[in-house]
Amino acid sequence: MTPSRREFGAFVMAGIGTAAIPATLLVGAADARATECGCTAVAQTAADVPWGGPLAPDKPLAKAYADGAKALAEVDDNPMIRWQYRVWCETGYRSPGNAGTGQPVDRPVDPTKDFVSPMGFLYRDYVRPMPAGGVQFLDNAWYFGTDFTGLVIVRTPDGLVMLDALTTPDDMRTQFLDQAAAAGLDPRDIRYIFLGHAHGDHVGGANLIRDEYAPRAKFVMGQPDAAVIAEQRAELKKNKDQYTKEEYLARLARIPSRIDIEIEAYPGHTVGMKKIRIGRRTEATAMLAPGHTIGQMHVIVPVVHQGETRHLLVWSGNDNIDAAAQYAISADFVQGIAGQEGADVFLNTHAYQGGAFSHLRALKADPSAPNPLLMGRAGVQRHIEIFGNAHRALAQRLVDGTWKAM
C-alpha cells in the first residue's frame, strides 16, 4: 500500500528526513519503510554516480507526484510557475563545477531570461546588479539587489518593511541605501526587517540599517535560525583573537546583533506561524517553514497595486534536496496559510529563481510589461503545490535511488 500525503508527512514529523538529517540518513531511515511504497533504497557511492540530479527513470510513486506537479504547471503559461516544475521535477539544481565524472554539462539557452540550463545547471557568471533605483514591481513594493540575491521593501501606512538584508554592509549601502532616494524611500522609515533565513547572503546588511538609520527597527526570524545566529556571534567572539581587529569587526557586522521576534514551531511540529503587527493599520504573517535551513521563514505582507489591496508572499531561498521531505511538509503548511491570507503575488528574494530577475528588469524598462509575479490566488496556490509535489517526488527519488542529493 502506498502512503498518502498525510502519511508521508508523518514520516517527517516522526523524525525522518528533517532538514538537519544528512541525505544518507534520510535514505537509510526511509529504507525501513520501502515495502510500504513499493520500492527499495539503493546504495550509491560518489565514484559511480553524478553529483546531483536524476540518475534513472522515476518509480511509480515518485512519478505520480511529478505528474501531479506537471498537470498544475500546465494550467496556464505563467513562466515562473512552469520554471518551478521544470527545475525541481525535471532537472534538479546543480552547479556546473560539481557535475560528476562523465556527466554532460550544458549552458543556459538565454541567460538574459534564465540562469538554469535545460539540464538543470545553475550559472552565476551572468549576474548583474539590478537597475538603479531598484524595481518597483507593485505600487508600494520594490526589489533591490542583484539578479541573484536581493531584498524587498514594502511601504505600508505604518512605515517601511524590509524582507531579507543582502550579503554585506557594503552591499546594503550600494545596492539599496545609495538608491533608496531615487525610489522615493527613506531608510529611516524602516520599522521591521524580516530575515528569511540565517545564510549570510540574506542577513549581512541588517545591522547597518539598525545601527545607522532605524535604531528602533525590529528583526524577525525563525526561532531555529535565530539560535544559529546567536551561536555564530558567540563563536566569533570566543575566537576573536584569530582575526585582526578589522577582520573581526567586519565579520561581526554581518551577523545580526539580536533577533527581536522569533517565529516558533507549533508544539510537536516543525512549522509555525505568527502575526506581526507592523502598526495600527498593517499586519504581516510570518511562517516558520524549514527546508533551506532549519529555521527558514516566509512572509505575507499586504500590498497595493493599481489601487487594489493584494497580498505579497515573499519566499526566502530554495534548494537543499536532502531536506526534500521536510520541504514537502513546509510547502503544504505555507500553501494553507497563503490560501487563508489570500496571497496573490509571489516573489523569491533569490530573483533568479523562476527567472524573476528578467521579469523585474522588463518591468523596470516598461511598467506596463507582463507581470507574472501577479499570479492571483489560484496561481500562488498552484505555485506552492508544484513545489510541494516536486519535493515529495524528490524525497521518494532519494529513497528509490533514482536521484542523488546535492
- How many strands? 14
- Number of helices, counting only DSSP H or I runs of 4 residues or more: 12
> What fraction of residues sit in β-strands?
15-25%
- What is Rg? 21 Å
Which word captures the global form?
A: globular
Helix content range of the residues, please?
25-40%
Terminal Cα span: 29 Å
The low-pLDDT segments are 1-49
Largest sheet: 7 strands, mixed
Strand order of the largest sheet: 2-3-4-5-6-7-8
Average per-residue pLDDT, rounded, comes to 88
SSE ordering: HHEHHEEEEHEHHEHHEEEEEHEHHE
Alpha-beta classification? alpha/beta
Explain how this protein is built.
The chain is of the alpha/beta class. It is 36% helix and 18% strand. It contains 12 helices and 14 strands. The chain has helices at residues 5-13, 23-31, 60-73, 79-91, 169-180, 200-203, 206-212, 223-238, 245-253, 324-341, 356-365, 376-400; strands at residues 53-54, 135-138, 141-145, 150-156, 159-163, 190-194, 218-222, 261-263, 272-279, 282-288, 297-305, 308-315, 345-348, 403-404. The protein has a 7-stranded mixed sheet. A 5-stranded mixed sheet has the order 9-10-11-12-13. Helix 1 (5-13) crosses helix 10 (324-341), helix 3 (60-73) runs antiparallel to helix 4 (79-91) and helix 4 runs parallel beside helix 12. The longest helix has 25 residues, at 376-400. The radius of gyration is 21 Å and the shape is globular. The two termini are 29 Å apart. Residues 1-49 have low confidence and may be disordered.
